[in-house]
Amino acid sequence: MAWPLRDTRRMKAALWIAALLIPLALPAAAQPPIQAPATVQAPATLAARIDAIVRQPRYAAADWGIAVVALDSGRTLYAHQAGKLFQPASTAKLFTAALSLATLAPDYRIPTRLLSAAPIRHGRLDGPLLLAGMGDPALGTLGANPDWADDLAAQLAARGIREIRGELIADDSYFTGPALGSGWEASDLLGWFAAPASALSVHENTVTLTVTPAARAGEPARLDFAPAVAAPSLAGTLTTAPPHTPDDINLYRAPGDPLLHAFGSVAAGTPPRSYRLAIPDPARQAGEELRAALARHGVRLKGALRVLHWPERDDALRANAQVLAEVLSPPMSEILAQGLKRSQNLYLQNLLQIDGVSAQAAAANRPDAPTGFLGSEAWGLRALHALLERIGIPPSSVLLEEGSGLSRGDLVTPAAMVQLLQYLAAQPYAATLRGMLPVAGVDGTLEWRMRDGPATDKVQAKTGSMTHVHSLAGYVTTAGGRQLAFAILLNNYDRGDLGPSANRDIDAIVQLLAGLRDTD
Q1: Cβ pair 342, 444 in contact under 8 A
Q2: Which of 66, 209, 352, 481 satisfies CB 3.0 to 4.6 Å to 403 for a cystine?
Q3: What is the DSSP string of 68-134?
Q4: Phi and psi angles of residue 154, each rounded to the nearest 5 degrees, phi first
Q5: Contact between residue 196 and residue 280 where contact means Cβ atoms under 8 Å apart
Q6: Domain spanning 40-86+413-520: which CATH class is it, in words?
Q7: So what's the pLDDT on residue 43?
Q8: Is pLDDT of 187 > 80?
Q9: Are 230 and 195 in contact, with CB atoms under 8 Å apart?
Q10: How far apart, in whole angstroms, are the C-alpha atoms of residue 8 and residue 25?
Q11: Mean pLDDT, the chain, as a whole number?
């Protein structure tokens, strides 16, 4: 079952919420666990002021979980339900980031390749051509191979290949398991933030729909897709309503169905509206783009386009295959930075599965390797649990189903979140990680938050938001020069139509931390 996206205040909130590759490094010594509230030694004024925020009457039915620790001493400065499980939303990305930093070299570039075992004779490839994805989530984006298909086609032509006597096979079976993250909800699947993870991703697996009303009421509105090559099959239409009429834009696609339904109306004289939608089959889209690029470069394709999805596999296609062309992603560190700054779910979910493929390969010859089927996502989570065990984080305090924080089945404690931040702060790449996080009042998802006050440019933290969930976790430099790690998780809060923003109070807590001059 799925629900239509409607252009109302409620729909816009749902559509735009985001929570939308080195040998395994040995961790530093386990960080001490967060102290229980009974032993908190935070300054009384700090504790009293935070208590005053979280105990406001509007939060009576909500749950706050907070942990704040000084990195130099490991001392807890404040804790409130720090050992209780909360939905973290996109702050869960910190766990996936920790795994990728421990597993993948920062300069690792993810390849996308053209492969074939068929012979090449007189400019003719006598067999199928395989477009093989290995998880690059940035393929086709600005600054990251926007002309990837033409690059591959040009490399093929440079080899003297002018004809392919076989199929073009777009293969995303490098990842095993469903394309949707565990726990992702059917009502989210049309939005960009729930684009399917795919080993053969393109344009972040999204297409932008722009709705423009006609000049006169009663005429159809114009629907434009960008990139145009990603335009889906469309059913229905949107009519243009008289000026000053409330808009009623409805978009619906059933799960598993590529057909997009559009119905309702948009008022004449209003500006165009844009919606970023998920592509249901990224591998097919990539195949279509490559097919067009081959034609542009004078390479004739005699066969049809075929898509190979898990659980289908055709190992014979890869046996003795040679790499005929290749494009590479940006370095893993850049992909991770984009994923954290923008809270890009696809990037983190793909990275988790790349970690999972690595973990599965490493376990292949071990006698204790699990039997039975595990998908790439499950292998990634297995590797994450092993990392957390080495750090000393109790397994019962981190219950993650996928890599982005989009699942409501993801649960963590504030204490575990801060313990992870303590571990990361002690690693050689600590400064690199902090540079990947949004900076208060400066960039990423914190660009427009905490633009005034002591926290501006002094906080590097990951945001997280879903309906009734608000969170922030990261680092803050106090006015006294101390470095703190913090996690603030608010669950089950309904602000209503006119209630104050929960982020305002989360930011107020962080401002208090940033304003501290002496934590002793």
Answers
A1: yes
A2: 352
A3: EEETTT--EEEEESTTS-B--GGGGHHHHHHHHHHHS-TT-EEEEEEEE-S-EETTEE-S-EEEEE-
A4: -65, -40
A5: yes
A6: alpha beta
A7: 52
A8: yes
A9: no
A10: 48
A11: 91
Cβ-Cβ contacts under 8 Å for 256 (sequence gap 6 or more):
280
pLDDT of residue 317: 87
Is residue 38 scored above 80 in pLDDT?
no
Residue spans of the domains in the chain: they are 40-86+413-520
* CA gap 378, 401 in Å, rounded: 8
CA 198 to chain centroid: 12
Element (H, E) at 240: strand 238-241
Q: Angle at Cα 445 formed by Cα 407 and Cα 194, nearest 5°?
A: 30
Helix (H) or strand (E) holding 504: helix 502-514
Block residue for tokens 């004779």: 121
pLDDT tens digits, one per residue of 142-159 = 989 999 999 999 999 999
Q: How far apart are CA 137 and CA 339, in angstroms?
A: 10
**Cα(8)–Cα(158) distance, integer angstroms:** 52
Q: Is the pTM of this model over 0.70?
A: yes
∠ Cα 115 116 118 (to 5°)? 170
Q: Count CB-CB contacts under 10 A for residue 303.
A: 14
d(CA 167, CA 154): 19
What letter represents residue 124's amino acid?
A: R
491 burial class (0-12, 13-18, 19+ CB within 10 angstroms)?
A: buried
